[in-house]
Amino acid sequence: TIQTMICYKAKTLATKMINDAVYEQLESLGYTYQDLVAISKDDTGAISAIETDTIKVNKIKSSVVKAVSDVGTKLSEASIQIPIGTLTNIAYFSARGPSVTLKVIPQGVVKAQFVSKFTSAGVNQTHHQLMINVSMEAAAVIPGFTSNVDIPSDFIIAETVIVGDVPEYYTQI
Q1: What's the CA gap between 136 and 149, in Å, rounded?
Q2: Angstrom distance (rounded) from CA 50 to CA 34
Q3: If we measure between CA atoms, which residue out of 111, 78, 85, 99 comes closest to residue 12?
Q4: In angstroms, rounded to a whole number, what is the distance separating the alpha carbons of residues 51 and 116?
C-alpha cells in the first residue's frame, strides 16, 4: 500500500510538472505543422513525399529535454504530504492522522524521442502526427521506503489529415 501510494503521488506531481514544462516550450517555439513538415507534390498535384525539418525538430527535442531536466531540480525541492492513516490500508483511517513527508528524487536522464505516425483516416485520407515521447525516472522516498517511478508522457507536436484523390469506384474486399 505504501509503495502504491508514494508511486501514485510522485507520478502525479512529476507528470504535472513535466506537462507544464513541455507546454511552455512548445508554446514559446510556436511551430505549426507547415513549419515542421514540407509536403512535396508531383506534376499532377499528388503528394509524392513528406519531409520533416530535422533542424527544427531537434531544436524542439533539445528545448524539451532541457525544460524537463530543469523540472528534475524543482521536483527534488518539492515534498508531498500523505496522512499516515492512508498508509494503513484501513478505509476508516484514510486521510486521517499526522502527515508523512514524501520526497521525489529525479534519477537517471530525461529521454525524448520523436515519432512520426501515419494512420488511415478514411478512403484515400491519411492522418499524420508528429509526436514527442518524453520519459523521466524518479524515486519516491519516505523514511523506510523507496520506490522507483517511470514517468512517460506523449505530446502531439503537429498533425494533419492528408487528403488524396477519391477513386471513382471503391470496393472493400
Answers
A1: 8
A2: 11
A3: 78
A4: 11
